[in-house]
Model the fold of this input.
Amino acid sequence: MEKLNLKFLQSLATQYPSVAKACTEIINLQAILNLPKETEHFVSDVHGEYEQFLHILKTGSGAIRNKIEDVFGNTLCARDKKSLAALIYYPEQKVERMRLELSEEDFQDWYKVSLHRLIAVCKESSAKYTRSKLRKSLPADFSYILEELLSENNRVVEKEEYYNEIFDTIIRLNRAKEFIVAIAGVIQKLVVTRLHVIGDIFDRGPGPHIIMDHLMEHSNVDFQWGNHDVVWMGAASGQKACIANVIRLSARYNNLNVLEDGYGINLVPLASFAIETYANDPCQCFRVHAQEDSDLREVSLNMKMHKAIAIIQFKLEGQVIKRRPEFNMDKRLLLDKIDYEEGTIMIEGKKYELLDKSFPTVDPNNPYELSEAEESLMNRLCMNFLNCEKLQEHIRFLFNKGGLYLCYNSNLLYHGCVPLDEYGKFRKVKIGNKQYSGKELYDVLEYYARKGYYEQDNKDEHEYLDSYLSSRVIGTRALSSVTVEQKDDGNGVNVTTQNISYCTSGMYRNALITAGIKNADVKVAGPFKISGTAALVGVMKAYEEMTGKKIPEKSKDAATDELITTGEVAENIGSDDAEKLIADVKQKVAKDNLSSPSEIKQAIEESAKDLNINLSDADRAKIQSLMDKISGLDLNVSQLKSQAKDLYDKLGGSQGIFDKIAAFFQSIFSWLSNLFS
Done:
């Protein structure tokens, strides 16, 4: 236990290298814990109804009206409160309406009064936030002015003219409308701290893509995937049964525009197939939900497309059910129970007459096999879904921000139902050769959902790593996901990881700095525990695309070699020591322009001695080989230190700080444990 505590304390000491910084952070955390509880907004079953959804977001489901009531109480009449609320919800439209209704003089007065009222509501909405967090919520164009106004103290009479002049100047410069729009946006953001979307953004409604676009701009949102969301996630992964299901539901609700216009997925091949196959079939059993004024020809075509894709879905789902008997879904196998000559179907020993008896694409002897035309059609549709960048962007966002469930603020959030038995206990469900229930069932289902989407071919990885690692270590699939965000000068390279077992954040960072990457926040994650070797290649490619700068091949090679060498050395001396040792030797090589084998060997020995590390001959040889490459890169020592300041500060003689900080933290360890629990 003491060893674990020490490791924890040393980690804290790395992040807070002095007592002063540690105290500051503790004070900050304690103060934050005493802020008012955040406001959470829960929405569910959106189903593409974007107009209603966006209205709910703008109004905060009544939270903004409550803020107006809190601020003004009985000092404003109900009409003025309603008008102010409308201004916050729809600022642009409200301003234009008032411009038409009022004279020029009255309109200017309305501007001034509205600005004062909006600032008052904004101050009330920001009361639960720290100044730092508030500052991040302000729009860049008006951040300084808004910060000044929001810090206004109404009791300070001396500054009244100062604030009034700000409003007057905004109006004189014809920026009042833009300023009002900015304030309204801030209020909408602040009034709700976190948005929980508990399932089913997709299907039925006309604008799930519009909803996703808006949610991607939201500051703090999470998802608990619904059944319809998961089907779309499967479709984006290229699963043909899911693709057929998505198209069928869109056709049923006469909503194919979502696919065609919203995501640019070409459905002409499906339309052509449906017209050719069901030319003389009215497809009355496949009616769609259409408005009374809908184009009859379009409705007729959608019905044919609906039937065509429905038959394909029955076949594809049948193939899955037959392939996975553990699903126990044999009751859904219906195509093999049809008497195609009689036009009847046998279900649980009882015969029923079919309402639709036309199945030109079904082979009675092999009813679940796609026809040649259907197979060709599904291949084309599959490629369209896989190559739709907007759809893939939205689905990646769902994966990044969501899961099947979430525990938040002592609430368990999930969509739909949890399987229970007749006694109300968690029902066991067989997945593969094992049975799962409750939380374990949801975890394994989410695991397979992520695996199905993120598994990709790893040719690029093999291109760079084949000479360093065995195929066993590299694997056959690339599963890691990376994000790279460019930061301002002075921020350095920062790496965080999740579910990465072979590579540490320090190994990534040091290798990336060697490659020439600077001032970037990098996140590396896996859907489950993976080595993460593919991520380095991914980060370098992403950095090139983001900056437009090509990383030299020799830098890529050296960075790759450094990552692998550090990992191999770490197996013998530990990750922390390996990272520090490689960094220290690299600094010496770059600082003194070391190039000869003897010079590099001496540098390795000196660093090992300084860090009290015992190296094997094999590890010495690996580091020597690596430094031979690094010596030819012309690395800048200042850049190394600026991009990994915390690491090189430690190497510069302050290693003893660990003991000092650890001692400090030890004195408050019990308090910290309670704080982080």
